[in-house]
Specification:
The chain has about 375 residues and is mainly β. It is about 5% helix and about 40% strand. Strand 6 and strand 7 (about 120-125) form a beta hairpin.
Length: about 375
């Protein structure tokens, strides 16, 4: 017959600071015990299936130093003897057996059942799990306040699942200066958390081996669709997208591959407009609009004395560098008309790395000059 001893209790009055500290401890405990927290005794010899519905179990009997696996979960044990008392218990535990553990593999430990004496000490690590722990032990022996010897240990776990991730870029072709984003669909996960990181490589980095031109990370809260932030490329060319899911305690990581279908976007040059207006002849001006960060291109003005802009130009303005959208004007040049003529200005913008070329054409800006000599 097993006998237990009932001890007289001493009533204590706690100071306000002590009560506050105790409440703080209880609040922390309510959110789920840390891996090193003390377990809760449950009566009898309990397996994982008794304690957590649907949990898988790796049983180590008897506990000893070493690494143990069932092909899904691997656990390394370090069994030792306490050299000092456990502050979470009254009495003396010096000399009692305890163990530390680390777990790896394709699973997450959500509880540990430590059998010793007539009962089981259960460490409940739900919901987040704990793949390491320190100084776990069997229940307390009420006869001497020490921990019972270690009979066997059961690691309760949930195998990780492999979610799928597929992606779709918002547009296959855009003009430089326009935004684009990527969408990732995460499916098959076990209430996945963690993050999805989107990266765009380019321009013209077909293997995604260079530094990403753009990175966006978003939090994950369940299976579903997740959008990256908007990306506005600053150079033309083809960009390749990759989306990577970080994984978590219950889900493996997942990633798309460089060059996946629906993950390329072609960024085209901007197509600026050019509006020309004749000033006091023979001067001219042209306004460039819609260019994206123009740099290095030039604008040229040519004056022809015919309607089809054939032959040599009667006047050529020195090229001007185009470094911004805006109006460009010819210099004050004196040009004499000595006969009836159709004066035609042709204005051309060369374009640059980000912008297509533009031209006014021959007929956009023509003036018919009726020459009448002063002595007629």
């Amino acid at each position: 017959m097993e006998m237990t001893t009932t001890r007289p209790r001493t009533r204590r009055v706690l100071a306000a600071s002590t009560i506050s500290a105790l409440l703080a401890t209880l609040l922390v405990a309510a959110t789920g015990p840390a891996a090193y927290a003390d377990g809760s005794p449950v009566p009898g010899n309990k397996n994982c299936s008794d304690l957590i519905s649907g949990a898988k179990e790796l049983r180590i009997d008897p506990p000893s130093d070493g690494t143990f696996t069932d092909g899904t979960l691997s656990v390394t044990l370090d069994v030792r003897t306490l050299t000092s008392d456990d502050p979470s218990h009254s009495g003396t535990q010096t000399g009692s057996p305890v163990f530390d553990y680390t777990a790896t593999g394709g699973a997450t430990v959500i509880g540990v059942a430590v059998k010793g004496g007539p009962n089981t000490n259960f460490y409940d690590y739900r919901p987040g799990g704990a793949n390491s722990g320190t100084a776990l032990h069997a229940p307390v022996n009420p006869a001497n306040d020490k921990f019972f010897g270690l009979s066997h240990v059961s690691f309760c776990y949930v195998p990780k699942v492999q979610p799928a991730i597929v992606t779709q870029v918002s547009a296959a072709s855009i003009t430089i200066g326009d935004p684009v984003h990527d969408t990732a669909t995460l499916s098959g996960g076990n209430n996945p958390t963690g993050t999805i990181t989107f990266q765009a490589f380019g321009p013209d980095d077909a293997t995604c081996s260079g530094t990403a031109a753009f990175t966006s990370t978003v939090p994950v809260n369940g299976n579903g669709d997740y959008d990256s932030a908007a990306f506005t490329p600053n150079a033309v060319g083809t960009y390749e997208w990759i989306a990577s899911y970080s994984g978590d305690a219950f889900n493996f990581a997942a990633t798309t591959a460089c060059g996946d279908v629906n993950e390329s976007v072609v960024v085209n040059k901007a197509r600026p407009t050019m509006n020309t207006v004749p000033d006091l002849l023979p001067n001219d001006s042209a306004t460039i609009a819609g260019a994206f960060a123009p740099a290095g291109g030039t604008i040229s003005f040519k004056l022809y004395l015919n309607a089809d802009c054939t032959g040599d130009a009667a006047y050529v303005e020195p090229d001007q560098t185009v470094d911004a959208n805006g109006t460009y004007v010819t210099s004050n040049t004196t040009f004499k008309v000595t006969a009836d003529a159709t004066i035609s200005w042709v204005v051309e913008y060369s374009g640059d790395a980000n912008n297509e070329a533009a031209s006014s054409g021959c007929t956009q800006e023509q003036v018919v000059m009726d020459f009448t000599p002063l002595n007629s």
